[in-house]
């Protein structure tokens, strides 16, 4: 099946490919690798590329996209590119300059989707994670509705086609949806979502408001990341996923990705391994049965790999809510 036709319609009329390539990598991976793997992902058939200012690799990802446009593999309009406004830029007057900086790094005229990376605002400045002398995060206090208005202006200016959010709970989404004078609804909410944290309540909420749920961490998490709890179970070693994978002659990773697509969730597959990048695009070549889906639903145990504990004292910390 042609992955290019596997798209989901957003509430603003644009389309997002159901499978995306995640470009975030642990700090020890050289930034130059992002050029190679992004090029490879595009050659393999990925058309949805997900990055962010905080990944510090937009220059390299942009270079890869432009080189694949230059050699005729794709046109700009074939690529759906997502960037994110980082927490140190959530003050309304900093949003557009942050997007302009990303566009300059990418050397692109627009992004397809620009989203608030997470609702916890951090003190503006050069550092991504500003801390005080005791190593405590330096929080900022921002009205997210004003931040949202700044994103609406970026859309009106043609710097981004669509706007959305990430890591928002349903109450934070509601705040934006109920904002007086709302011009554009968020098209998506990008959140950690996998069989151990299937986000069924949040998914239902988003669907009822015509907001697409985008899943990151869909294959579990890399243990090398300092903020991931090393004692949590490995998702891809789960016996239920392994049994379903064996039955379909697929890998547990493909089963985890396919599960999301069949629930109407847009899923990001992050890998810097060429063999696995090629494999992940095959998610459209098979289908899970109703029994398979039920069995995977049964794995939900609210295990969150990325719980951003450092921000637990911020009033906008999203995970104190059930969903």
UniProtKB/TrEMBL annotation:
Active site (record annotation): 55 (proton donor)
Residue numbers marked as site, Lowers pKa of active site Tyr: 84
Annotated positions binding substrate: 117
Signal peptide feature range: none
Keyword NADP: yes
Gene Ontology MF: a single term: androsterone dehydrogenase [NAD(P)+] activity
One GO term (biological process): doxorubicin metabolic process
CDD domains: AKR_AKR1C1-35 (cd19108)
Domain NADP-dependent oxidoreductase: 19-300
Keywords for this protein: NADP, Oxidoreductase
Highest taxon above the source species: Eukaryota
Gene Ontology, cellular component aspect: cytosol
One Pfam family recorded for the sequence: Aldo_ket_red
InterPro entries (alphabetical): AKR (IPR020471), AKR1C (IPR044482), Aldo/ket_reductase_CS (IPR018170), NAD(P)_OxRdtase_dom_sf (IPR036812), NADP_OxRdtase_dom (IPR023210)
Recorded family membership: Belongs to the aldo/keto reductase family.
Name of the featured protein: NADP-dependent oxidoreductase domain-containing protein
Origin species: Bos taurus (Bovine)
The organism's taxonomic lineage, starting at the top: Eukaryota, Metazoa, Chordata, Craniata, Vertebrata
